[in-house]
Write a structure and sequence with these properties.
Shape: globular
Number of strands: 7
CATH class: Alpha Beta
Structural class: alpha/beta
Number of domains: 1
CATH superfamily: Uracil-DNA glycosylase-like domain
Largest sheet: 4 strands, parallel
Number of helices: 11
């Protein structure tokens, strides 16, 4: 089975656990949105149609406008069309994807990058919180203690499956130098999924708070990933 088919099977098997707090909606684009399953399958079959191992890069959890719609971490539909050559009529824009694909361009382009690297998330499904006006906003698995505790066993089971996808286990890149790195380090000390965890600043943080220093962060990513 190719890397692509293993990823597609992994995504198809993802399911929403019971007991999520009522104020939170958990997103599973692979079940809720048929196009996300089709787009992600096309993406993986284009860039991962082999049996070669990849360096694993773990984000936090999918966001509404990126993987929540495309099924592909750190890839909004604009980048999917322009950088990956996969067409869709959906139009979304996510700042994290802008940073990631500028970094990918300097790496050598999508084909070169995805031949070496694989994005996923500590928690493979995303969350939104509904505010008093009924609006949804992205939520991280660690933003509420009750949610983090509820999701820990789910995350452990997911990582057990993820590391069987021919990823390099000597080290993993963790996007997020704060709570995501702290949580992943804590469970890794017990379960030894990876020999080493390398933290990098999350693309969303860079774009929101350090956009003027974006090029420095791109160089930092390349130094770690090359």
């Amino acid at each position: 089975m190719t890397f692509a088919e293993k990823i597609i099977a992994f995504n198809k098997e993802l399911d929403i656990p019971k007991g999520i707090p009522s104020s939170i909606r958990m997103m599973n684009p692979y079940q809720e949105n048929g196009e996300a399953m089709d787009l992600s399958a096309s993406f993986y079959r284009k860039f991962y149609n082999d049996r070669n191992p990849r360096k694993l890069i773990l984000g936090i959890n999918p966001g509404r406008l990126g993987a929540g719609l495309t099924g592909i971490p750190f890839t909004d539909t604009q980048r999917l069309i322009e950088n990956c050559g996969i067409s869709t009529k959906i139009k979304t824009y996510e700042p994290s994807a802008v940073f990631v694909y500028e970094m990918i361009a300097e790496y050598g382009g999508a084909e070169a990058f995805y031949a070496d690297c694989f994005f996923n998330s500590v928690c493979p499904l995303g969350f939104v919180k509904i505010d008093a006006k009924g609006r949804e906003k992205n939520l991280n698995y660690y933003d509420e203690k009750q949610l983090e505790e509820r999701m820990t066993s789910y995350i452990l089971a997911s990582l057990e499956k993820l590391i069987k996808l021919d990823v390099v286990r000597e080290r993993v890149i963790c996007l997020g130098t704060g709570k995501n790195f702290k949580f992943l380090s804590k469970i890794n000390r017990i379960h030894r999924f990876f020999n080493e965890i390398i933290p990098l600043e999350h693309p969303r943080y860079i774009m929101q708070y350090r956009s003027k220093e974006k090029q420095q962060y791109i160089r930092k990513y390349l130094e770690v990933l090359k």
